[in-house]
Amino acid sequence: MWLSLFPPICLGCGVLLRHDLPLALCSRCRPRQARLPPSLAEDLRIRAVWTYEGPLARAVVALKFNGALALAGPLGRLLADDPRLVEDPEGQPIELVVPTPLHWRRRLARGFDQSEELARWALRHANARHGWAPALGRRVLTRARATRPQTELDAPARERNVEGAFVVKRPELVRDRRVLVLDDVTTTGATTRACMRALDEAGAASVSALTLLRAV
Ligand SMILES: [Zn+2]
Q1: Distance 20 CA to ligand 1 centre (A)
Q2: How far is the centre of ligand 1, averaged over its atoms, from the C-alpha of 157 (Å)?
Q3: What kind of architecture, by CATH, is found in domain 41-214?
């Protein structure tokens, strides 16, 4: 079965795990990973699961900047562990998952889009678990312009930097659908909220958001 193509490895240090654990961390790395306190997990209209530090932060950095695509599977599974991947905050089924897009120039340079890879794997795991999954909305949302990396900016500047940066390219897929924006990391939530606004304006029935990690 293709879901078990990769042997289970620790996301923190890469050791082979003897068992396929729900959270793919070995006994040494597991205590170094903090779950977000409930107040932050539901903050800013964005659901996040883990803090952006420790072994999972290193795994996301390795995926993004070192092209460690083998990590997308186990990281995607962590997203599938959260019920909000398939249900909106009102408990209604999500119909379309839209990854936060990279600008095409950055995507070309990197060779892949990490949010899209995470979304693809998360939905595969969801499908294996529930027997169904929302559709993956590839190229539904695009970056209309390149933006400065958010890490260089303070919170108000982050909001301005991404204001109007996202355009819904395929509104017919969004209209009257319950849509989930999916991203790897959020800090102030500015990028995620800009995506949510664009989808909302395109006529989505509901727009919620899920990110794997939140910087605190
Ligand atoms: Zn480890």
Answers
A1: 13
A2: 37
A3: 3-Layer(aba) Sandwich (3.40)
